[in-house]
Specification:
This protein is 47% helix and 20% strand. The protein is an alpha/beta fold and 568 residues long. The two termini are 41 Å apart. It binds ligand C2E and magnesium ion (MG) (2 copies).
Amino acid sequence: MNKDTGNINSDTRRRELILIADDELISRELLGNMLGDEYNVVFASNGSEALEKMEQYKDELSLVLLDLVMPNLSGTEVLKIKSENPEIQHIPVIVMTSDEMAEVECLNLGASDFITKPYPRLEVMLARIRRTIELYEDTLTIKSTERDKFTELYNRSYFNRYIGEMDRFNPDTRMDAVVISFYKFHILSERFGQELADKVLKSMSSHLRDEVHAMGGIICRKDLDGFLIYMPHGNDYERLLKTAGDAIDGIPEVADGHIRLRLGVYACVDKSLAIDRRFERARLALDWNPNNMTGSIEVYDASIHEKELFNEQLIDDFDAAIKEKQFIVYYQPKYNIKGEKDFLASAEALVRWIHPKYGMVSPGAFIPVFESNGLIHRLDIYVWTETARQIKEWKEKLGFTVPVSVNVSRVDMYDPNLISMFREILKENGLTTEELILEITESSYTKDSNQIIETVTDLRSLGFKVEMDDFGTGYSSLSMLSAMPIDALKLDMQFVRSAFGEKRDTRMIEIIIDIAAYLSVPVIAEGVETKEQLEALREIGCDVVQGYYFSKPIPAKDFEQFLKERKA
Ligand code: C2E
Ligand code: MG
Ligand code: MG
């Protein structure tokens, strides 16, 4: 946790700010005295004042202690209004009341914890308050890694929001979407060390930021090895490259062409296209000419448009592919690593397309395409049905099986027949909800949480287990997380990647394991490729592991071998 591993030492640490909302003066004084030594405190004496203070201190508040019974607005009403206000919904709340019956309602409204009056011992109160604040700060830490800590450039979501604003205020200005990629940047840190790589990155960021601002544009970092720029058309692309090049030349060790700088441009963007699509076109321009020299500028044009046509082709071929069963389900084992001996706990169903013209197409190529137009729903139903049939076959043939998880896309959650369909699929194959697990990505949850939470709650009341996939890539706040109905967290592969990169640093994973413990759910790590990763994850308390170390996704026939071993 922060206080143990971070550089915040308990003597010099920032004093967190707590809002105490209680209508009784005695209570306010009592709590104020209890907390005053350790925290800064502000007060509110009724519900609407509490909301006002939350807005006023929205960026500083670490916690609200909220009395339930107050004049003008009750604590539950405050919680409800707060949960609908994106500005303040992230602030954690501990509810204080003598009415124990209110607990469930408050937790449902997003409260993080519950303290019953009369107040418990001071140490107990302080411990619960500290715990809630720590968990809250940890989720902030996770989010702040989405922000670029070296370069201080906008993160992607801010960047996109700014673009929306620019377009709204200047609808007629012609704009370019530009991608700068510095190819093989990771090699730089391997050859010259992380410190130098950071220096290069910082230097490029600050030079480019100034230049782009002067051009009237904005910039953000893209993944490990690139920048995105949105700027008025007519600016000089060469100058951008030169600016980035100069920034590198200022650092003698790498000045010698170690970094291959390239620029992809989608000029005069079609503003009816989604923002991500515009940069995708700039990126496509680069991908189209992968072997080009440093300093090259690639512009999105007709030939690249053809690649987009390929995607269209995939869409056209979809119906036939379903009908002719060109989609094949592969299975990847998940191992429980908690016990003395690792054992096969379950599997994940992952689809592949054996295309008559293109051969094996990976889901990375077609899932995003089908997600963008809703076809994914039909594909998912196909995969669920096929998976259930396969489980049934294994049961009959081997007298044994393990649960298999299937991926559920966001659009699936909007189908009013979803639940009856799952029921039907199970019934047809004589399966129970124990045997088919559902994986839903964190980003699905955060995009439309109310609708998703409702559906997931219904599914879980039928007995389905729901795993939150790609956890850590969304923007869940702690109070959202505690309101989310889930049975396991699947750590996004990226966390394993970065924890075992250049330097070994598993702190982020530890934080997530801590959050999972708070939610009382197990953690599944994806993308585990080496023995070293496995042992480290075991050490820090990860429960289940999936990855090439145990096996790649394999055809049903091959997976049988894993089942037989498990049975033996
Ligand atoms: P996911 O659900 O997060 O699945 C895990 C992905 O990680 C799979 O990629 C798997 O092959 C890959 N993987 C597993 N272990 C390792 C490892 O050790 N190293 C590396 N580098 N990769 C590993 P895959 O099969 O290409 O699928 C990609 C994504 O496509 C999946 O991510 C999932 O979001 C989506 N997908 C696959 N099948 C379906 C499906 O039937 N329906 C839906 N909606 N999405 C699917
Ligand atoms: Mg998955
Ligand atoms: Mg995943």
